């Protein structure tokens, strides 16, 4: 019975510990997806049609509902790791691009949406204290200025740039992997390591946080001359450093709740953003 419960948990994307938790009970009662219908398969096949025909002989594949990232080289998976993706209100977008460079000791340039909606009230209460406690800086016309020199409101917060200095508390951690795009999302490290232990990992504002970024860098630079995770780690603590890839590596941010694993069995994950259910309905299922 324990092994049967573990198998059901794994199929539903839950932690396979054999314990009858509320989420496990919900899955067993049919309130969470544990089986694949014809509509599930057809909708997943349709979503595959949206991806490039050629994913790249070497590529990075992030499946958002599975909270997993993998590196594939010549048809073989060479690395797999956990990721944290966007919350329902700040969803990770679905698109393909190419990783072109990475940055060690990155600044975090705070998006205007976060600064305006989440930070402004606290900034107005005590600008200098708020910025100093979090290692933030204000950049105006290309120069760092004192937070108290700005008259903080909805208009002025859009005229300055708020950034967090590199360091242990930086929201991007020690490294970020860049594929410049219209959504302003990327893969990056994080100081919030404990969140990777959770089965459900939707906490970000849209970017993808990587569990072991330097192991991922090792896999990414496997055929690159002169760089690896160990050398990149040696740069931690210094100034911001950009490292270009000799060849851009395709990256695909995808959304699959149903797929067939290497053993020929269908894997099922909860429909995190509701994309799968909407697609099934549009296709008449």
How would you describe what is shown here?
- It is built from 8 helices and 15 strands.
- It has helices at 2-11, 22-28, 38-49, 112-125, 127-134, 213-220, 229-233, 275-282, and strands spanning 58-63, 68-73, 76-86, 95-104, 108-109, 136-140, 143-145, 161-164, 175-178, 187-188, 202-204, 208-210, 241-254, 258-260, 266-268.
- The protein has an 8-stranded mixed beta barrel with strand order 1-2-3-12-10-9-4-13. A 4-stranded antiparallel sheet has the order 5-8-6-7. Strands 14-15 form a two-stranded antiparallel sheet.
- Helix 4 (112-125) packs across helix 5 (127-134).
List the helices and strands and how they pair.
Elements: H1 2-11, H2 22-28, H3 38-49, E1 58-63, E2 68-73, E3 76-86, E4 95-104, E5 108-109, H4 112-125, H5 127-134, E6 136-140, E7 143-145, E8 161-164, E9 175-178, E10 187-188, E11 202-204, E12 208-210, H6 213-220, H7 229-233, E13 241-254, E14 258-260, E15 266-268, H8 275-282
Parallel strand pairs: 1-13, 3-11, 10-12
Antiparallel strand pairs: 1-2, 2-3, 3-12, 4-9, 4-13, 5-8, 6-7, 6-8, 9-10, 14-15
Helix pairs in contact: 4-5
Labels describing this entry:
about 280 residues; alpha+beta; single chain; 15 strands; 8 helices; 4-stranded antiparallel sheet; globular
């Amino acid at each position: 019975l324990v092994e049967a419960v573990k198998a059901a948990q794994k199929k539903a994307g839950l932690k396979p510990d054999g314990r009858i938790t509320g989420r496990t009970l919900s899955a067993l009662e049919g309130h969470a997806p544990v089986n694949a219908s014809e509509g599930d398969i057809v909708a997943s096949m349709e979503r595959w049609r949206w991806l490039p025909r050629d994913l790249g002989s070497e590529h990075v594949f992030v499946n958002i509902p599975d909270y997993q990232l993998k590196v594939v080289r010549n048809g073989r998976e060479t690395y797999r790791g956990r990721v944290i993706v966007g919350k329902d209100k700040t969803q990770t977008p679905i698109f393909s691009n190419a990783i072109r460079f990475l940055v060690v000791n990155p600044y975090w340039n705070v998006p205007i949406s976060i600064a305006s909606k989440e930070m402004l009230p606290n900034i107005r209460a005590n600008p200098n204290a708020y910025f100093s406690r979090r290692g933030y800086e204000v950049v105006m016309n290309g120069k760092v200025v004192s937070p108290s020199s700005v008259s903080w409101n909805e208009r002025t917060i859009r005229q300055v740039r708020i950034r967090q200095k590199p360091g242990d508390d930086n929201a991007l951690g020690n490294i970020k992997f860049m594929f410049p795009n219209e959504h302003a999302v990327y893969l990056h490290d994080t100081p919030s390591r404990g969140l990777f232990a959770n089965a459900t990992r939707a906490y970000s504002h849209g970017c993808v946080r990587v569990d072991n970024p330097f192991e991922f860098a090792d896999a990414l630079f496997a055929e690159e001359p002169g760089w690896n995770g160990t050398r990149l780690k040696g740069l931690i603590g210094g100034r911001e450093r950009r490292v270009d890839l000799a060849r851009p590596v395709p990256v695909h941010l995808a959304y699959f709740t149903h797929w067939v694993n290497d053993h020929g069995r269908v894997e099922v994950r909860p429909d995190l953003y509701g994309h799968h259910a909407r697609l099934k309905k549009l296709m008449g299922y």
